[in-house]
Amino acid sequence: MKRAAFVILLIGAGGAGGALGSMIGAAFGKTALFAGGVIGGVIATPLAVVLAGTFGWIDRRAVKPAAIGATLGFLAAAAIAVNTLSSPVGPVLSTLLIPIGAWLGERRSPP
Question: CB under 8 Å to 12, separation ≥6 — which residues?
Answer without folding.
Answer: 48
